[in-house]
Amino acid sequence: MTQHKSYIVGNWKMNGTQADIAILKAIADAAGSDSAVDVGICPPSTLIAAFAQAAGGIGIGAQDCHAKASGAHTGCLSATMIKEAGASFSIVGHSERRADQGESDADVAAKAGALHEAGMGAILCVGETLEERDSGNAIAIVTGQLAASLPASTSGDWLSVAYEPVWAIGTGRVPVADDIAAMHAALRATLTDRLGAAGAGVRILYGGSVNPGNAVEILAIPDVGGALVGGASLKAETFLPIIQAAPR
Ligand SMILES: O=C(CO)COP(=O)(O)O
């Protein structure tokens, strides 16, 4: 496996107003010049431009983009639009969008392809529900989801994957380390199967209830290349210790 810098990304979801630029600045002041870790924040789209201005060394990303370049899609934003606003990457396929907006694996693959086309990065999210975990088939389900959500592409440098068990998001529950390791190993095998050597360089992040108290343990699990952090990324006091917990 190609060794990469850790990648710690905050997903602010539907949180944040202009007043919260102070939080970004506090994070950028403390961690923006940390050359050992890549740090990103995905604010709501309304804040991408302002955050990009104040980002320091922090990468600013979007939380979603449309698969098409333009057209009659009320309320949507294309990859080139979020890029123009200042985003260098976007999350795609978050379980909240798969559930709330009914996004399919094919939709997610098209969105990831649009980001690649626009010269941007993508963090492609996959993960099982509690029912799927309890069925004993989580690995087959999640690797299948990844295989179906990957766009046709031969390079991997623009892509990251986030394994986010749906039942671990916002619940304070986290899989045991062995289960995270087993899932990441299976996702790695899917990536190398599909992308060849490039698949070895794709960072696989873990997401779901990462906090300052569990970050050291989670980030030390084999082939966990970083974290996608929700609630704990909303405040510098809780996000900075997670960045500091990244292996270096
Ligand atoms: O969904 C997540 C990040 O995308 C995880 O959210 P929490 O860290 O709040 O559990």
TrEMBL record:
| PROSITE patterns referenced in this protein's UniProt entry, alphabetically | TIM_1, TIM_2
Q: Which residues bind substrate?
A: N11, W12, K13, G170, S209, G230, G231
- The catalytic activity of this protein is classed by the Enzyme Commission as 5.3.1.1
Gene3D superfamilies per record: Aldolase class I (3.20.20.70)
GO terms for MF: isomerase activity
Q: Name one Pfam family in it.
A: TIM
Pathway participation: Carbohydrate biosynthesis; gluconeogenesis; Carbohydrate metabolism; erythritol degradation; Carbohydrate degradation; glycolysis; D-glyceraldehyde 3-phosphate from glycerone phosphate: step 1/1
Leading EC class: isomerase
Residue positions of the active site: H94, E164
Which reaction is recorded as catalysed by this protein? Answer: D-glyceraldehyde 3-phosphate = dihydroxyacetone phosphate; L-erythrulose 1-phosphate = D-erythrulose 4-phosphate
Q: What is its main location?
A: cytoplasm
Q: Keywords in UniProt for this one?
A: Cytoplasm, Gluconeogenesis, Glycolysis, Isomerase
Subcellular location(s): the record lists: Cytoplasm
Task: State how it assembles.
Answer: Homodimer.
State the similarity comment.
Belongs to the triosephosphate isomerase family.
Q: What does this protein do?
A: Involved in the gluconeogenesis. Catalyzes stereospecifically the conversion of dihydroxyacetone phosphate (DHAP) to D-glyceraldehyde-3-phosphate (G3P).
What protein name does the entry list? Triosephosphate isomerase
Which species is this record about? Answer: Blastomonas fulva
Upper classification of the source organism reads:
Bacteria, Pseudomonadati, Pseudomonadota, Alphaproteobacteria, Sphingomonadales
